[in-house]
EF-hand domain-containing protein (Plasmodium falciparum Tanzania), 132 residues
Amino acid sequence: MSCLNLWPHSKHVSLFRSFWVILCSSFILTVAVVGFLIALRKSLRLEKLKKTIKLVSKGAYIDCYRKYSVADPDHGMQFEEFNRMCSDHTNGYIYFDFLDLFIIFNALDEHQKCSINEREFLEWINGPVTYL
């Protein structure tokens, strides 16, 4: 409705224009809310995974990281290794598709190199909730 207030005023605001503005505003609001809910759902799944890793690892987070970062330990944990870690710690319950992994690595990887190093892994495990 605020879009109607921003529109140039004329004496005869057509009903069609009012309907069109309300429809567009509602669509934009709906898309924003759905996007927010999807991001929140993914963030909560990642937080659930973090809690499970903390529970299973019992404080040995570096050992957990080193166990799964085997392809290129100097570069960091890759997508497939992160997914294997997720699957192993949750008995296959949490598994991310490629797009979700890209979003997760974008949030966790500081230098956007498509891998998570030890420091970034520890910051994620010991840090607050990561919002995607």
In short: The first helix runs from residue 2 to 6. Residues 39-126 form a domain with the Recoverin; domain 1 fold (CATH 1.10.238).
